[in-house]
Design a protein that fits this description.
alpha+beta; four-stranded antiparallel sheet
Length: 80
């Protein structure tokens, strides 16, 4: 049972894409980007990676959300 849980956590960790998330948020002017890891909800089924984030927007406000991305696909930023 312990191994099944460990394998599941490793697979979920592979479903986030931190470099693409930081790049997407940097492109729209966000700073202090911090990944919060894989987010189960927030992206459609056609996206491979669902990476949660906390960042600071252009006005200095803290925002949270998820960046959805996939193979041969761009990134979509969705806010909470």
């Amino acid at each position: 049972m312990k191994y099944a849980v460990l394998i599941g956590l490793i697979l979920l960790a592979g479903c986030s894409d931190v470099p693409s998330t930081k790049n997407a948020l940097d492109n729209i002017g966000f700073t202090d980007v911090e990944s919060t890891g894989y987010r189960v909800f927030g992206c459609g089924d056609d996206y491979t990676f669902h990476t949660g984030f906390i960042a600071r927007n252009q006005k200095g406000k803290t925002v949270t959300g998820v960046v959805c991305s996939g193979w041969l696909k761009g990134s979509s930023v969705k806010f909470d």
